[in-house]
């Protein structure tokens, strides 16, 4: 399977993706725990059906020491006992922020308040931005039908 558009060669796509990557770098430097970042990006990618990002974020998380058990349970995080309360709050924000069109008003005040119990303002800013950026990446990759399965950790470093 080939992508409809090569995001790594097309000059316009490359310029656009470069800005997404820059936003991710700022998020990475924010103090938001890496484990939380991995869980959130994986969950949003699952919801959006982005095979490329699901592959990439699963492999990157494993490479950085995340357990297979936790990664396998991200899709069923509400029933799983392997996540902290902070991670659960972040996953709820990720789901509501990803499914924003499904609920009038978008993310609920309750979900935001729960996350605010666990993350400071800078981390909340990073978390909201992370959810927005991963959704943008997901949509772009799904739109061009970016194939999944061949990603190697650190491939884009």
TrEMBL record:
<protein>
    <submittedName>
        <fullName>Carboxymuconolactone decarboxylase family protein</fullName>
    </submittedName>
</protein>
<dbReference type="InterPro" id="IPR003779">
    <property type="entry name" value="CMD-like"/>
</dbReference>
<dbReference type="InterPro" id="IPR029032">
    <property type="entry name" value="AhpD-like"/>
</dbReference>
<dbReference type="InterPro" id="IPR004675">
    <property type="entry name" value="AhpD_core"/>
</dbReference>
<feature type="domain" description="Carboxymuconolactone decarboxylase-like">
    <location>
        <begin position="19"/>
        <end position="95"/>
    </location>
</feature>
<dbReference type="Pfam" id="PF02627">
    <property type="entry name" value="CMD"/>
</dbReference>
